[in-house]
Amino acid sequence: MKGELILLIAEAITVYFLVLWAHSLRSRYGLAHFYALLGGLTAVMSWVTDAGVKVNLPHMSLMVGSTVFYTALLLGIFVVYVFDGPQATRVAISTVAGVSAMVPVIALLLHLEVAFSGSAPLVSVPMPSFRINSASVLTTVADLLFLAIAWEFLGKPRIHLPLWLRSFLTLLGVMWLDVILFSTGAFLGTHDYLEIMTGTFLSRLVLSVFAFPFLYLYLAKQNKKFGQVIEHRPVLAILKEMTEARQELSLAQKEIERRIHVEREKEGLIVELQRALNEVKTLRGILPTCAYCKNIRDETGDWHQLEEYIQTHSEAKFSHGICPECREEHFFHLRGGRA
């Protein structure tokens, strides 16, 4: 029994680290590989649970399915909700629920195929129980939804719990809720219902104490070392689109404001360019000019005074004065001069 317990602990530590490590790689590779890992662990959990693999301890039995794989799934959903938000969490929950529902169906189809072919029964593939598997799928979905709700409720400012206590109480609450829902759905009405529930309560307390350090250290590391801020969301954010809608609305509003600003800048630039174009308007080409009166002929053959033509074909304006030479020539007599 000691060897079985050591092996179980080693398996749990390995799988816990695998899930948290896969989530830590999301900044490089996204969350696709993380979802795939959750789906794979869900399938293994279903097979192992249906097979009834467990380790018996004094006054308690530890099911390998829940001790190793279900707890790892809880840790995975926990961290993806805390750091990636409700939308990513809904994808993860859908993955877990979908695989949980698919595995017993596949097992049933395999048994039917073997039965129709006349081959020996599949001993290695446990025959699924509709009641137990239905209770497992529904309980898993409820657990994961409750995880997000409990995390937000315990994170309210007026409660003001430290991160370690908030994490532990959330994890323990999910574990105990799973005991109530699954035991009731799968074993209510049987003679060992209360015994199963009582023993499972104790085992889940032990699991919470064992798994909590992995969860807390990961949350603290992501929060401090990598600058991952733990947000405070509405309690029912996991069930509603409020958080995403608010974020998307804010982003859309910022994008609209940015585009309006860019359009205004473009309009201002166009005005400035038009003004500059008007200011640099010049005369080009050969101007037919009268050799005597200096009038200029336009493209239609009409003659215009020099000042008139230039003012019409440019932005220049004329202001009249008298140069020194003309003053001497035309106004010399006004100073009493003699020729």
Which terms would index this structure?
mainly alpha, 3 domains, two-stranded antiparallel sheet, 4 strands, 4% strand, elongated
Structural class: mainly alpha
Q: How would you sum up the major sheet? A: 2 strands, antiparallel
Radius of gyration: 41 Å
Strand ordering within the main sheet: 1-2
Tell me the total number of β-strands: 4
Uncertain segments: none
Write the layout of secondary structure elements.
Blueprint: H1 2-24, H2 26-29, H3 32-51, E1 54-57, E2 60-63, H4 64-117, H5 130-154, H6 163-187, H7 193-224, H8 242-279, E3 296-297, E4 303-304, H9 306-313, H10 324-330
Antiparallel strand pairs: 1-2, 3-4
Helix pairs in contact: 1-4, 1-7, 3-4, 4-5, 4-7, 5-6, 6-7
Q: What would you say this structure looks like, in words?
A:
The structure is a single chain. This protein is mainly alpha-helical. It folds into three domains: 2-240, no CATH class; 244-280; 296-335, no CATH class. It has ten helices and four strands. A two-stranded antiparallel ribbon has the order 1-2. The protein has a two-stranded antiparallel sheet with strand order 3-4. Helix 1 packs across helix 4 (64-117) and helix 5 packs antiparallel against helix 6. The N and C termini lie far apart (140 Å).
